[in-house]
TrEMBL record:
It comes from the Eukaryota. This is Cytosol aminopeptidase domain-containing protein. Belongs to the peptidase M17 family. GO terms for biological process: proteolysis. Residues 73-237, 249-328 form the Cytosol aminopeptidase domain. Keywords: Aminopeptidase, Hydrolase, Protease. GO terms for molecular function: manganese ion binding; metalloaminopeptidase activity.
Length: 342
C-alpha cells in the first residue's frame, strides 16, 4: 500500500482512496508512512495527497492507523531536518506545540541549562559544553489514567541533535547523517504525542536530554573524568556519544532483520516480544553478561569507562553494560493496565 501510494503521488494525484484489505488500521498506517517526504527546504515540493478508506472497511481502525502513521512521521521529520533547523531549543518547541491541543492531560517542562546544573547532571553537561547551543532537558508527563495508584511508563530517549564526535571527530563521510542522532528522543516524544492523540488510558513520563556534541576549546577531552547525577564517575576514552557505539554495533550484529533488546526484566521482554508479533517489527534479546560489565567497570581513573576497555568487539553489549550501571529500579513488572495490555 505504501509503495502504491508513492507511485500515485509521483503521478501528481491529490486524493487516493485506499482499500482496507481486511485490516484498515494497517492500510492507513502504510498509506501515511508511504506518503511522507521531507521537502520543507526545497522550492519544488512533492504533491500533497489526501487519503481516505475505500468502501465499507473499519473506519475507527483507519483513523487509528492514521494517528500511528502520523506519530512515526513526526519522528522521521525531526530526524531528517537539518541540525541548524532542529537545535535542542527548536526540538523542544516543536514537541511543545504538537502537544498543545492535549494540554488538559499533558504537562511539558523545558528544563534550562541552569536547572541541569542544579541537578548536577555532569555527564550530560560534559557532552553539551563544546557547543554554542544551550542544552535542554525535555520532560513530558502524559496523564491518561486518573488512577494515581498506576505507576507511569517511563521512556527515555537520547537527544543529540548533532553528533560531530567532539574531539574524537568522526570521518566526514556520512557525518551529515548525525543530525538524526536524536532519534531516541524523537521516538519517545512522538510516542507521547500519539498516546495523547489516541487518548490511551495509561500514564507516561518521557525524558529527552537534548544537546549537540561539538569540538571546541571547552569540549570534553579523551581522558577527562566527569561525574553523573547519581555520583558515579566516568572516564571519557572517546568523546563520541555512547549511543552511536550502541547503534552501530547493533547494526553489525543484527543488520535490518530485527531490533536488539537489552533488558533485566523478563516481563518487559515478553511485552515487547508480543508487540513485535502484532506489528511485524521483530525483536531479539541480547545478553547482559558480567563479562561485558567488567569491561566498563575496570577503569584506571574513575568508576566507569564510557566504552569497553579490552576490545572493540561486542560494542552494543558493553554499551548496555554501561547503561545498566545507572539502573536502580527493582527487576520485575512495574506497570499494569486494566483489562487487556495496551
Amino acid at each position: 500500500i505504501a509503495g502504491g501510494c508513492r507511485v500515485l503521488q509521483n503521478h501528481v494525484l491529490t486524493h487516493i482512496e485506499v482499500d482496507g484489505c481486511n485490516d484498515s488500521q494497517s492500510a492507513a498506517e502504510g498509506a501515511v508512512l508511504g506518503l511522507f517526504t521531507y521537502d520543507d527546504l526545497k522550492t519544488k515540493k512533492k504533491t500533497r495527497v489526501t487519503t481516505q478508506l475505500h468502501g465499507s472497511g473499519c473506519v475507527s481502525g483507519w483513523e487509528k492507523g492514521v494517528l500511528y502513521g502520523e506519530g512515526q512521521n513526526l519522528a522521521r521529520y525531526l530526524m531528517e531536518a537539518p541540525a541548524n533547523h532542529v537545535t535542542p531549543s527548536v526540538f523542544a518547541d516543536t514537541i511543545t506545540n504538537r502537544l498543545a491541543p492535549y494540554a488538559d492531560h499533558v504537562t511539558v517542562h523545558k528544563r534550562s541549562q541552569e536547572w541541569i546544573e542544579e541537578q548536577q547532571m555532569g555527564a550530560f553537561l560534559s557532552v553539551s559544553k563544546g557547543s554554542e547551543e544551550p542544552p535542554v532537558f525535555l520532560e513530558l508527563h502524559y496523564n491518561g489514567c486518573p488512577d494515581n495508584a498506576q505507576c507511569p511508563l517511563l521512556l527515555v530517549g537520547k537527544g543529540i541533535t548533532f553528533d560531530s564526535g567532539g574531539i574524537s571527530l568522526k570521518p566526514p563521510s556520512g557525518m551529515d547523517a548525525m543530525r538524526a542522532d536524536m532519534g531516541g528522543a524523537a521516538t519517545v516524544c512522538s510516542a507521547i504525542v500519539t498516546a495523547a492523540a489516541l487518548n490511551l488510558p495509561i500514564n507516561i513520563i518521557g525524558l529527552a536530554p537534548l544537546c549537540e556534541n561539538m569540538p571546541s576549546g571547552k569540549a570534553n577531552k579523551p581522558g577527562d573524568v566527569v561525574t553523573a547525577k547519581n555520583g558515579k564517575t566516568i572516564q571519557v576514552f572517546v568523546t563520541v556519544s555512547i549511543g552511536l557505539v550502541f547503534s552501530l554495533s547493533m547494526d553489525v550484529a543484527l543488520g535490518s532483520a530485527a531490533t536488539g533488546v537489552f533488558t533485566n526484566s523478563d516481563w518487559l521482554w515478553e511485552q515487547l516480544h508480543k508487540a513485535s508479533v502484532v506489528t511485524g517489527d521483530r525483536v531479539w534479546r541480547m545478553p547482559l553478561f558480567q563479562h561485558y560489565t567488567r569491561q566498563v567497570t575496570d577503569c584506571q581513573l574513575a568508576d566507569l569507562n564510557n566504552v569497553g576497555k579490552y576490545s572493540r568487539s561486542g560494542g552494543a553489549c558493553t554499551a548496555a553494560a554501561f547503561l545498566r550501571e545507572f539502573v536502580t529500579a527493582p527487576i520485575g513488572r512495574t506497570w499494569t493496565s486494566q483489562g487487556d495490555d495496551q
